[in-house]
Amino acid sequence: MGRLWLIWLIASVLLVFPLEGWTRVTGPCSNCHTMHNSQGGSVVSAGGPYEALLVNDCVGCHSNASGADTIVGGTPIVWNTTPPTYPPSGSSSTNTLAGGNFYWVTQSGGNPKGHNVSGIASAETRFSTVPGSTTSYYQVTCAGTSGCHGDRSKSDQYEAMYGAHHELDSTIDGTTVGRSFRFLNGILGKEDGDWEQSLSSSDHNQYKGVDRTSETQDDTSTISHLCAECHGDFHNGSGNLTPSGGTWGSPWLRHPTDYDMGNTPSGSEYRQYYYSAKGDNLYNPLVPVASSDVSSVVSTVTFNNDTIVMCLSCHRAHGSPYDSIMRWDYKGWPGNGGTNGCVICHTSKD
Question: What are the b/e assignments for 248-286, b being 16+ CB within 10 Å?
Fold first, then answer.
């Protein structure tokens, strides 16, 4: 009995104080798992039991039905039933996190405002194929073959995420799901500790991009590649971005992705990219750009592979208050009195 008690004590300590780096999840095992879905004569999880002895599923763990706070008990919330703050101010516990929030997808007319994830929203009815693809439309899940997170070769969501929440992730190298940026298998980046609940030019995620030299080039470690796994025609492929027989670059058929604004002339409008004042060249987390080096956070851009246009420069991954999951109200500007994020890069169009 003494030896078993010692083993249990060591295991508990390691959960809270890992030997190196840190773990994705800390605290008592019972926060996430239940042996029998029964405690003290009561059911632990009304919707369970779930695979891997979990007390809840992806949606259940990362939703908040009781308020607008977007981090609860150290867990990032991607679905609030009370609207979170948007755009995020950088100083509130209700700030929308980096990926956005599924709240707006669930509201009346919300289909264009986010991904229609199973368990949160009904399936989309406007499309027969996935936008930017010839693949027949299917409803997305959080993880697995039909989702974004985890091992996309696994059809089962739980199997796709197996072990990721426990893996040491002090190094994001893409070798496993747990060591990939935000559990996006194989994707690199530098993770902001509070998922951008607080944010500034020096406080944000750093997304991986590549300064491509042709439209057929595809670096599988970039965040835009992840989006292209479903929406490939918007990212790479012969004739998708530039005119047939044309060279890589302007005139564009579709908005470029994985393209560094540093390729433009030194006096171009794009070199005035800004956060507070036109031309300050401070990183703007509301109109983010990717970088080829993600070992540190970029505060001031140099236009040397650190101003790479990506899918998330314009869109949120989960949901936003605006159609097409845009980061800003493009359709309502300028009558809405708000910000048109396009002019952060296209500075002469303001």
Answer: beeeeeeebbbbbbbbbeeeebbbbbbbeeeeebbbbbb
